């Protein structure tokens, strides 16, 4: 192997290593990221499909307008057909009249978009690689907090230098203290590793994993790729 290739291989291996921090902000250890998941490949088109499908599936599709047949009243003809000099009108509930029905208005319907499971997994994998390339992934040893006070959780974020940043916290088993202490912090979201989506991974400035949550998510993606 040439010296240039050796250097490239060494650089590639070092890129698969991330530091694990404690809640005090101190370096605890280094973890090797699984090369099957963190292979550096980013499929932007697939991520776009996953995000569009996710946002479409959040829509309720409940918008509803009444047609002229659904608006109450208007059964009597306002004036006779001929001889008045005015336009012919059959009902005061015509879409042309104030208080009338709506032509071609929205009706309740589903916006649901299906995306194969394999594509969802590939899109999530691409999102993680994109975040890694932008240095927007952090790993914390464990998110354990003894109290439910917001100031205590804010102190942890301050130690990690993540204050004021839009965060997605990925945890396996968030306890009650963690939920209570973090709920008043703006732009902070918590998600279970089993439920993390491509949209949620991308829609944050920093993706913060508990160490065991990253391992669980890696296993989930590898299983989905089989």
Account of the protein in words:
With 226 residues, this protein is α/β, with parallel strands linked by helices. The chain folds into two domains: 3-59 and 112-225, Ribosomal Protein L4, Chain: A; 61-110, no CATH class. The chain is 36% helix and 13% strand. The protein contains seven helices and six strands; from the N terminus they run H-E-E-H-H-E-H-E-H-E-H-E-H. It has helices spanning 3-14, 44-58, 117-133, 150-159, 176-182, 198-202, 211-225; strands at residues 17-21, 27-32, 137-140, 167-171, 188-192, 206-210. The protein has a six-stranded mixed sheet. Helix 2 packs across helix 3. The chain is elongated, with a radius of gyration of 28 Å. Residues 1-14 have low confidence and may be disordered.
Broad CATH class of the largest domain: Alpha Beta
Q: What is the arithmetic mean of pLDDT?
A: 90
Radius of gyration over C-alpha positions, nearest whole angstrom: 28 Å
CATH topology-level fold name of the largest domain: Ribosomal Protein L4, Chain: A
Biggest sheet record? 6 strands, mixed
Give a concise summary:
This protein has 226 residues and is α/β, with parallel strands linked by helices.
Topology:
Elements lengths: L2 H12 L2 E5 L5 E6 L11 H15 L58 H17 L3 E4 L9 H10 L7 E5 L4 H7 L5 E5 L5 H5 L3 E5 H15 L1
Parallel strand pairs: 1-3, 3-6, 4-5, 4-6
Antiparallel strand pairs: 1-2
Key phrases:
Ribosomal Protein L4, Chain: A, alpha/beta, 226 residues, single chain, disordered N terminus
């Amino acid at each position: 192997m040439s010296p240039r290739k050796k250097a490239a291989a060494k650089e590639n291996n070092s890129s698969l290593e991330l530091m694990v921090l404690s809640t005090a902000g101190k370096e605890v250890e280094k973890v090797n990221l699984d090369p099957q998941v963190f292979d550096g490949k980013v499929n932007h088109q697939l991520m776009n499909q996953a995000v569009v499908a996710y946002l479409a599936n959040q829509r309720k599709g409940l918008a509803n307008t009444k047609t002229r047949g659904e608006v109450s009243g208007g059964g009597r003809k306002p004036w006779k057909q001929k001889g008045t000099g005015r336009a012919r009108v059959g009902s005061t509930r015509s879409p042309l009249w104030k208080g009338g029905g709506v032509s071609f208005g929205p009706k309740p319907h589903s916006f649901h978009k299906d995306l194969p499971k394999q594509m969802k997994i590939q899109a999530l994998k691409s999102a993680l690689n994109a975040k890694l390339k932008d240095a927007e992934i952090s790993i914390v040893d464990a998110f354990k907090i003894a109290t439910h006070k917001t100031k205590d959780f804010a102190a942890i974020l301050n130690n990690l230098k993540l204050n004021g940043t839009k965060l997605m916290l990925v945890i396996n088993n968030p306890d009650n203290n963690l939920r209570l202490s973090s709920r008043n912090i703006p732009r902070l979201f918590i998600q279970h590793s089993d439920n993390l989506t491509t949209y949620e991974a991308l829609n944050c400035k920093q993706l913060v994993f508990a160490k065991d949550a990253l391992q669980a998510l890696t296993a989930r993606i590898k299983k989905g790729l089989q």
